[in-house]
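Notes on consecutive records. When two proteins share a document, each keeps its own sequence and its own token line. Never mix them. Below: protein one.
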Amino acid sequence: MRAVFTIAASFSVLALLTITVFLFANGLPFIFRHWDSFWGTEWNLYADPPQYGILPMIVATILVTLLSVAIGVTVGLLTAICLYRLFPKKLVTPVSHMVNLLAGIPSVIYGLFGMVIFVPFVRDYLSPNGVGAGILTASLVLSIMILPTVVSVSLDSLKAVPTGYYEGGLALGATKEQTTFRVLVPAAKNGIFAGVVLATGRALGETMAVVMVIGNSPDMPKSLFQSVRTLTANIALGAMELSEEHTEALIATGVVLFVFTLLINIVFNVIREGRREKKQTPRKDKKAITDTKMAEEGITDAKE
């Protein structure tokens, strides 16, 4: 059984190493060969010579991810808090199941929903230039797609907080809302932060739904109401290209997306570790001060 568990645990590591080797072995030579044009602002595979600038897609990916996470995390966290303490207990279970069902809907259905509902709404009521497909529409669709992750992880984190925290807050005279937002949420922030990381990864890697509602023009983003293209959409749209160099260009785009995802996870881990150290340091200092005072009092008593 130890061998079985070792093989099972090693499978994911082996898969990650295989993907990493494939991407870097096929993508890095292309990046170094077209270094100047690869970081440019023009993407046109059929130009003479072909242009492989992915800077507009990097900017579009960052904007779509940040906006969707901002909307989705805000709504999801408030939903989790509502389900945890402020919602009627009889309705908590059905509503939680309904939210979790969102995770089982295929992404193409989200894209179709965005095409039929969000694109016309944004075009007719929000967009100043009459363009419905763009960054805002894609962010709205992605914010709905990441809701199950944020709600479920945040709700589980809130439920893991000891009941005594809530009762203690009420005993000190705080209202239910004050205790929830000022005691329970800070106590569950590590789990909530993990949900934010998962939601960011989902928003960053989503492809089909984004392709259907973002417009897919490889232009530099200048407005939320503009047709742009993300890194994942660029790979999906060019997947049928038969030219070997075009395929290498798409793999090189995958390398950038892979490194981008890796950097985001590293940044989140650094922030989390920094918060832990910041939280633990004052306790150590306080303990040291207390020990010093006790030692000084002990010396004084001994002299007396």
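Protein two starts on the next line and is unrelated to protein one.
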Amino acid sequence: MEGIRKAVLEDIPQVAAIYDHILTEEEGGRTTVGWIRGVYPTEQTALEALEAGTLFVLERGGVVAAAAKIDQNQAPAYAGAPWQNPNIPQAQVMVLHTLVVDPAFAGMGCGTQFVRFYESYALEQGCTCLRMDTNAANTAARQLYARLGYREVGIIPCLFNGIPNMELVCLEKVLHL
């Protein structure tokens, strides 16, 4: 099957392998995402999202090429962000977490395809305010999100998913029904 779908248990090893591939690239100095092996993300990260029904995968040629968690849970650090729409009801906010693209699929539009899916999914759920975050050092993600119309609202220093001294870039986009 091609396209984006909710993940199933059989996808977890491939999602965990993507985390591993990205961490290997970072450890080799070929990319910067700001993650720490064994801390975040881990296979448990994917399993928890699967159990919550919020893990989605992008499949290409029978292989999981990308994955992300999509839900309405805002990270505690988000409370310190100067959001464009600070008073929007929680029921209208959707959040994209841990978007990963296997390095073997880099530059093939997987990230863009996933973000576009996220936007459509949010609208289907009645959410018009989209939020996400990335590490300030992750320039590739920041460029992608800017190109797709996401506005950086602030950078929050924090402990994030067990990673100390994170400079968390908070991003927001408002969609119209």
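For the record: The radius of gyration is 15 Å.
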